[in-house]
Amino acid sequence: MINVINRLFLSAILAFSMSGQAVSEKMHGIAMYGDPALPPDFVSLPYVNPDAPKGGKVVTGNVGTYSSLNAFARKGTPPWQLRYLTHEALVGRSYDENFTVYGLLAESIELGPNRQWVEFTLRDEARFSDGSKVTVEDVIWSYETLSRSGHARYAGLLKKIDKIEATGPRTVRMTFNTAERELALVSGLRPILKKAQWEGKDFSEAGGEDIPIGTAPYVVSGYELGRYVILRRNPDYWGRNLNLTRGTDNFDEIRIEFYGDGAVLHEAFKAKAISYIREFNAEAWESHYDFPAVQSGDIVKSLIPHSKPSGITGFVMNTRRKPLDDWRVRDALLHAFNFEFINDTITGGRQPRITSYFSGSNLGMLEGPAEGRVRELLEPFAAELLPGALEGYKFPVGDGTQRNRRNLRRAMELLNEAGWHVRDGVLKNGNDQPFELTVLLRQDNLIGQASIFMNIYAQALERLGIKLILESTDTSQFTEREAEYDFDLTYIRRAFSLSPGNEQRYYWGSEYADIPGSRNLMGMKSPAAEAMIDEMLASETQEEFVSAVRALDRVLTSGRYVIPIHQYSDGRVAHLKELKFPKDSLPVYGDGIWLLPKTWWYEE
Q: CB neighbours of 508 closer than 8 A, spacing ≥ 6?
């Protein structure tokens, strides 16, 4: 009888000890909310041609130059494509879902209760491009090194990981100290580097020609610093038979050429020296692509729609500097920016204006006063919120004429309220200091024709007595000055997903406002914005999440930090006729490096 009781007691203890594990199971993928759309045995991503032929060469062009082939170090300016084409992570995304990840270097994912931890099991076959095996030690070293010595974009994650540890020969577990639902997904997206390559070296002091070894299909096979980079597809790529990679990375060679300005790049494309070009101006798309190669059919124009939020594109105001720390001054500068006239001049009015940071999606703030859960989230911060956050806010709309009289009158009223008055044709403050602004631009900015925008804007500001100084610099100088926030205004582009998360803190969080090289270009320090981001990250349902994003959108938009320009509502890609893509199964995220060059192929 005693033995029976003992056995029952031991069984109960064992059952209790395993109860914490009972809620977890190994999965092929995880979604932000709900279940992954693809089953464990999916053949390929839904926007990929699984039978796409391999081969061919594609040449793309970048404006500017580069000084490093290390895409993960703080020093130098690498070709932006490298970190996407040469390195992989534990998981990969499907760009046909809001936010879902599937196993890549990891064969399975396991979640703890309430996503307190996530555990990844490495694939036994995962290899670096030199043939060496990817180990748990490589994973842990990569996370720790990139967070402490890598680019600033990697700095935040480790702060939210209580511990990262090996739990088996091929398993690594990350236990979080922050209750954020997104962490289980984003923690698997960190690039994995080879630890042995850096033994005895200081990663933070890596030189421009120290090329990190990766696991992805492409490796650097040739380069001339500042001029070109050649990537070759690794014939021994370890993951060529995975469902997540089937039908992707089809080109044998990707060559990145660097051009001094956009005009030269366009001429190279017209001569078919490069294989494709992305056009961001709708007017240019309609009027500048009738050259002989298009007429003959050798070059094809492809329009690629998407369902992403608009994001924010325009000119950001540096609130670290006076008088831009005064919201009335920023509001005046917004009124003086005659978008309707400028947009008609540059794009023929074909591209609508951005109306908020998440406009064009269900995440964007609704018109009128804040209501329901959105209002509940914002009301505790009513004292600090700027006019319009609770009541409703829209960017100023001009009358379409060049003079824009009504808006300029309102701009002057706001400037007078802020202590600025015109004396002898010059706007001055009480200390007799003139109002001057410096706008920092990268030379030949291919995206947005920023210098044209600013030249027209300077004429409007001159009527207010404001002097706008345009400073165009090369890529290296621009990068250095932007990192030190040495500007009053500069061009900004922040593209958002359908599941914004931790990156929002990096864009708008006060902890990054004074760190050189951060993405918080405006220097904003808003407890309300940070509280909305916290709410987003802690949301348990899609409905709670949407309300939090809409509340954040109101804080950002009414903050008057950016003078917005037009949306990029569709992807516009002009390309050689030999470049093909699955036109009938485009992802909800539309065009991007995940589509071109990842899923395109070459076919005579």
A: 520, 524, 526, 529, 530, 533, 556
User: pLDDT tens across 465-498, in order?
Assistant: 999 999 988 878 898 999 999 999 999 999 999 9
Residue 428: strand, helix, or coil: strand
CA separation for the pair 188, 120 (Å, rounded): 8
Q: What is the DSSP letter of 391?
A: T
* Size of the chain in residues: 604
Has this prediction a pTM greater than 0.85?
no
Give per-residue pLDDT as tens, 505-531. 999 999 999 999 899 999 999 999 999
Q: Give the integer Cα–Cα distance in Å for 68 and 66.
A: 6
Structure tokens belonging to residue 295: 């007429």
* Residue partners of 20: CB distance under 8 A and separation at least 6: 112, 113
210-224: pLDDT as tens digits: 899 999 999 999 999
What are 13-66's pLDDT values in tens digits? 333 333 334 446 899 999 999 999 999 999 999 999 999 999 999 999 998 889
| Dist. CA 203–CA 191, nearest whole Å | 15
Instruction: For Cα atoms 494, 496, 498, give the angle at the middle one, nearest 5 degrees.
Output: 175
Residues 6+ away with beta carbon under 8 Å from 305: 569, 570, 571, 586, 590
| Contact between residue 446 and residue 262 where contact means Cβ atoms under 8 Å apart | yes
pLDDT attached to residue 268: 96
Distances in whole angstroms, Cα of residue 61 to Cα of each of 153, 227, 264, 506: 25, 10, 10, 29
Task: Dump strand ranges (E) for 135-217.
Answer: 161-168, 171-176
262 φψ region: left (φ > 0), alpha (ψ -120 to 50), beta (else): alpha
pLDDT of amino acid 18: 39
Rounded to the nearest 5°, which phi and psi values hold at 230? -115, 125
Q: Give Cβ neighbours of residue 514 (< 8 Å, ≥ 6 apart).
A: 523
Tell me the three state secondary structure of residue 133: strand
β pairing state of 489-494 and 579-580: unpaired
Query: φ and ψ at 284, to 5 degrees?
Result: -65, -35
Per the CB < 8 A criterion, the answer to whether 275 and 251 are in contact is no
Q: Compute how many other C-beta atoms are within 10 angstroms of the C-beta atom of residue 287.
A: 10
State how far the Cα of 372 lies from the Cα of 457, in Å rounded to an integer: 39
Write out the H or E segment, with its range, that includes residue 259: strand 253-259
- Are 118 and 69 in contact by the 8 Å Cβ rule? The answer is no
Give me 134's structure tokens.
């990817």
User: Is-contact 134 196, C-beta < 8 A?
Assistant: no
Buried b (16+ CB within 10 A) or exposed e, 293-315: beeeeebbebebebebbbbbbbb
**How far is residue 122's CA from residue 91's CA, in Å, rounded to a whole number?**
10
Which tokens in the block code for residue 451?
């210098």
Q: Which residues have CB under 8 Å from 284's CB, separation 6+? A: none
Cα within 13 Å of Cα(243), Cβ side: 17
> Residue 399 is encoded by which pair of tokens?
């009358």
If one counts every other C-beta atom within 10 angstroms of the C-beta of residue 224, the result is: 9
Categorise residue 200: left if φ over 0, alpha if ψ from -120 to 50, beta otherwise: left
Other CB atoms within a 10 A radius of the CB of residue 382 amount to 11
Q: How far apart are CA 53 and CA 250, in angstroms?
A: 7
Is 330 within 8 Å of 324 (Cβ atoms)? Answer: yes
